[in-house]
């Protein structure tokens, strides 16, 4: 459990940072509204729901402790009114809580909603507190489900998928939270928010895309980072590294995996014109892991020699899942990403034997939603069974939680703006899945330039899952989105601070897809001004 906590805290740090920007939090031109007393109010039930309860409690602020597995804290939160509305869908037996926090003073006139992480549908308190600290009235929903690794809600008493709760988690509750949150804001402040935003990373990123696709009028702007779109496909696909190791009966040690990653980064670093510790276009890194065969590495005090079998496993993991006939099913783990995220193994037992340790999110999806058996042993999956599971997941769940509809015309026509950044070394959600979706939108909606009018994607070099919100660096995506929505200033680049493997910081202007960063040939590589954005050469 300690390892899972560490992985989730590093890989899904949405709670701690999606609401960090301050540049976008200035109070609107008119004086901020004075809230009415924090007291219970009548709330209109969104279509298809009933309101079970409404409570309002004044909170003094201070330091907010995040609940659940992710934890975290935020300090300096001003006093706020906490309104909790519990909804149910008649006949479904669900109880979805919508929580809205409203600052007593200095509301900036904006409404923000926050998405979730892994199997958690909403925020754990840290994101809410950060938003209030930055002047936002903010909403989140638990969708009637549980914490990040809580899947106890997935099956009903008869062992069947609880489709009502899955629909809540997939999309329904986010839309209802938007309606409830806006109504609460108008009731407390006596006027509606001037602008509304949705922010999220990972599961929260997928929820943002769901809003754009299915409920295009809910938000003026959506910041949806490292999005878990194509959920029905990528969740199965990210079990592939474990399937490979189990079928090849080869389990590279963590130090060996790190050696492959370090060698790939070293080989591909100069591709942007300068050796600076960053691979600016990981999709073009074609490092062959077989180059390390025979290399010796020291792992936990023991010298190991990288074998041909080790290299073959890493090659399959980087390539990504394929059918027995070689048909590509999904992108693999990006070259340069931490292979230990999805290809983790146990510590050796007394006899020196190890086994795979699957990341719990895809393992749960396969065992529970596909096999309908929480005790199913995913280590038994063969290559042919993997292909069957991939196709089964797509057939059963694409319409519910695929979140990959490329027709964003309604969102565009309503003036909505969608901004996404995705780390190029995301170890949990393959970056190229997001790129594939963006290309599908371009084909559907008239090409790159027309799509750029309302939807922009930025890829962050050497940045892991949700990493710009954590140890890998920072970027103020919400400030850029607000400038786009409120002042029409479309972001050509997204300023960011990156951190390389040695812990050195460098400023970069993330390039809007499909452009990539290229060194100008002079200047300090740690400065963004030493790089420019260019279209990559055709393959």
TrEMBL record:
Record-annotated membrane-spanning stretches: none
GO MF: carboxylic ester hydrolase activity; metal ion binding
Signal peptide feature range: 1-25
Keywords assigned by UniProt, alphabetized: Calcium, Disulfide bond, Hydrolase, Metal-binding, Serine esterase, Signal
InterPro entries (alphabetical): AB_hydrolase_fold (IPR029058), Tannase/feruloyl_esterase (IPR011118)
SUPFAM superfamilies named in the record: alpha/beta-Hydrolases
One Pfam family hit: Tannase
UniProt family annotation: Belongs to the tannase family.
Name of this chain's protein: Tannase/feruloyl esterase family alpha/beta hydrolase
Protein source organism: Streptomyces roseirectus
Organism ancestry: Bacteria, Bacillati, Actinomycetota, Actinomycetes, Kitasatosporales
């Amino acid at each position: 459990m300690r390892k899972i906590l560490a992985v989730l805290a590093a890989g899904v740090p949405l709670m701690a940072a999606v609401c960090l920007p301050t540049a976008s939090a200035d109070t609107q031109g008119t004086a901020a509204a004075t809230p009415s007393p924090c007291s219970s109010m009548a709330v209109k039930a969104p279509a298809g729901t009933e309101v079970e309860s409404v409570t309002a409690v004044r909170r003094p602020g201070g330091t907010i402790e995040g609940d659940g597995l992710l934890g975290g804290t935020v300090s300096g939160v001003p006093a706020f009114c906490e309104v909790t509305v519990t909804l149910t869908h008649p006949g479904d037996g669900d109880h979805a809580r919508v929580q809205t926090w409203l600052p007593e003073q200095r509301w900036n006139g904006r409404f923000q909603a926050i998405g979730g992480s892994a199997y958690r549908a909403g925020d754990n308190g840290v994101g809410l507190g950060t938003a209030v600290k930055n002047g936002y009235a903010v909403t989140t929903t638990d969708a009637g489900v549980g914490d990040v690794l809580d899947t106890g809600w997935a099956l009903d008493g008869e062992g069947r998928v609880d489709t009502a709760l899955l629909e809540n988690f997939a999309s329904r509750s986010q839309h209802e939270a938007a309606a409830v949150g806006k109504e609460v804001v108008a009731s407390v402040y006596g006027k509606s928010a001037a602008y509304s935003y949705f922010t999220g990373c990972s599961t929260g990123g997928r929820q943002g895309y769901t809003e754009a696709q299915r409920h295009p009028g809910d938000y003026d702007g959506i910041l949806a980072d490292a999005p878990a779109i194509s959920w029905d496909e990528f969740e199965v696909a990210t079990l592939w590294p474990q399937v490979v190791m189990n079928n090849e009966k080869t389990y590279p040690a963590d130090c060996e995996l790190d050696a492959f990653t370090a060698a790939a980064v070293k080989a591909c670093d100069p591709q942007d014109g300068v050796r600076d510790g960053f691979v600016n276009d990981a999709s073009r890194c074609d490092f062959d892991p077989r180059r390390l065969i025979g290399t010796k590495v020291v792992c936990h005090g023991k010298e190991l020699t990288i074998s041909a079998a080790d290299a073959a496993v890493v090659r399959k993991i980087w390539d990504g899942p394929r059918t027995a006939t070689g048909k590509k099913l999904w992108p693999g783990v990006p070259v340069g990403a931490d292979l230990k995220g999805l290809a983790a193994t146990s510590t050796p037992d007394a006899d020196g034997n190890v086994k795979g340790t699957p990341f719990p999110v895809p393992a749960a999806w396969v065992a529970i939603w596909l096999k309908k058996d929480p005790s199913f042993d995913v280590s038994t999956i063969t290559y042919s069974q993997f292909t069957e599971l991939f196709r089964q997941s797509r057939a059963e769940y694409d319409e519910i939680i695929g979140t990959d509809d490329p027709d964003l015309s309604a969102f565009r026509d309503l003036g909505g703006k969608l901004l996404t950044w995705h780390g190029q070394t995301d170890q949990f959600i393959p970056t190229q899945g997001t790129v594939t979706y963006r290309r599908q939108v371009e084909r559907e909606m008239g090409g790159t330039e027309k799509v750029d009018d309302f939807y922009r994607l930025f890829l962050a070099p050497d940045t892991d899952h949700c990493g710009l919100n954590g140890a890998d660096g920072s970027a103020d995506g919400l400030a850029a989105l607000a400038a786009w929505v409120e002042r029409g200033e479309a972001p050509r680049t997204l300023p960011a601070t990156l951190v390389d493997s040695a812990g050195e910081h460098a400023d970069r202007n993330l390039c809007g897809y499909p452009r990539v960063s290229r060194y100008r040939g002079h200047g300090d590589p740690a400065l963004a001004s030493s790089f420019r954005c260019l279209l990559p050469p055709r393959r």
